[in-house]
Amino acid sequence: MSNTILPVVPYGVWPSTISAAQVAAGATPLSGLMLGGADGCDIFWLAGKAAQGGRNALLRYHGVQEEEVTPMPYNVRSRVHEYGGGAYAVDGATVYFSHFADNRLYRLDLTADVPAPQVITAAGQQRFADLAIDRQRGRLIAVRELHGDQHSQPHNSICAIAADGSEQVLVQGADFYSSPRIAPDGSALAWLSWDHPAMPWQGTTLWLATFAADGTLDAPRRIAGSREESICQPEWSPDGLLHFVSDRSGWWNLYRLCRDGQRTEGLCPMEAEFATPHWTFGNSMYGFRSASEIICTYIDKGVSHLARLLPASGKLEPIAHPYAEIRELRVAAGYIAMLAGSPTIALELARIDFSEEGVEILAQSIAQLPDEACLSVPASISYPSAGGRTAHAFFYPPCNPAVQAPEGSQPPVIVISHGGPTGMTVNTLKLVTQYWTSRGFGVLDVNYGGSTGFGRAYRDLLKGQWGVIDVEDCVAGAQALVARGLADQQRLIIRGSSAGGLTTLCALTFHDTFKLGASYYGVSDLAGLDADSHKFESHYNEYLIAPQPAAAELYKARSPIHHTDKLSCPMIFFQGLDDKVVPPQQSAMMVQALKARGVPVAYVELEGEGHGFRKADTIIRTLEAELYFYQRMFGLHDASAGAPVQIANLTD
Questions:
Q1: What's the pTM?
Q2: What interhelical angle do 499-510 and 469-483 show, nearest 10?
Q3: Are 81 and 153 in contact (CB under 8 A)?
Q4: Mean pLDDT to the nearest integer, 631-642
Q5: Staple partner for 220: which of 209, 257, 352, 525, CB 3.0–4.6 Å?
């Protein structure tokens, strides 16, 4: 047994082997899982390249090796709804994809000696997503978003794109569309639609129509859904039965259209979520091994499970796996491919073969992880919040085996309010979280009321209560840690991005629990957000707050920009100047107001970044600035070290 005495170092300045550069270089975002190839056995996915300006490269696992399919400078990404997703499709050895730089569709023949993308669609103001292959008619079907001038909202539809690039609108009239899915025999098309002011996790409609001889659609009919029922992920079974996920029971569960074409039936009713909110296109949480067997993942109390569902009996059989989160799932006859992770496993591409035991790892978001002894493994906690509610969170304690904290001291804790706000935080290993815990910060990642993964009733807690319920749950989480002796009451921090930025600002403005805050492209002015927002979220506040103009005073009461006289905590702001979701003036107004009041404030503007930061240099710059800001404000900074960001109104 070693008698080594560890050095005593205060929380917040522990020497860490996890640098900001390692966070930027080590984490490769993985998304867009698909199956295809000439023999149908290839696995495709998107990998974000931070060192290449954040572009999405298409990769494929072909046989026994990984290869990059799309060359520089092609960026496989869609901007439909601004959040994108569903940016490519595979048909045998042919790939079709949307290039982010011009929003045009391209074709790539993987059998060519030197595969080179060939443009299909004409230049213009159209964007495409959720591509489907219409083999019977030799065309693509996709969601199209047609933009006009900057003063008008785009027009959304489902259209067909012929081999020559010509476009034919098949469905229009609703505000939004998604998930065009073609029947296995090519005879029919299913799709989803919804209208303002609903968001897709509030109410959508599932439609079905047969193709006419000329490729148009005959007599669309509603299958399921309403303004109060959210339908997700319509899919066809191999024998031609339309399946979908609905929250009609209060939980997103699996259903199917019966063979009579009139009735729908639930397949396995349970208090668990078989879907996630439609922020991006192409989400997949179930697939068919055969006509009589579904492979699915579902979320129970924030944790993912994998199972085999037999629709005939409703029997659900668990499938062993090492993960706590399964983000995407695709199913072939002989195997499952999924993007998944756990508290000690960063997001990775895994394959489970039906004929063998174990998991084969095909790609990892982080190639080299810190030693497991250096990783903070979160505890899933629940705690009482305002109004008798119970809130949920993951708590990551400080972790660094090379040091010990002074006896009797408690750590500073960063409370994270996730974005959305209709989103969900998961406990998959993230280097950025370990960046903080390895330096002696605790991290509380909160699934406040309004988060998904806990049923519709929990999700609807935020209805009319944004800036209240979410804030109360973050405040209660910090207080619960203090009461348990896990946090220093005088060094509580709140940090949030996008909608989580509003939660952060409201917590600092209307409560006195937190001492510091960090806002990443956060919302500060709700009325301004309505005025500048893109189409997808332009009516979201009617649900989260109340309909305008009658709610003008409520909007003002919830907007931190109108209450800067109550905000006295030092803050740091980060803002991409190309952000189309939360315009830069939202952050700039808060910074100017705090400067005028003499409150210490720092502001980092980032050229070429939008809503969510992708570039390696940006990730490094923001993390180092945020760490310096916290240490400087808590009197922990080494005065001899450099200052990666200027702090206005700093008096010492």
A1: 0.91
A2: 70
A3: no
A4: 78
A5: 209
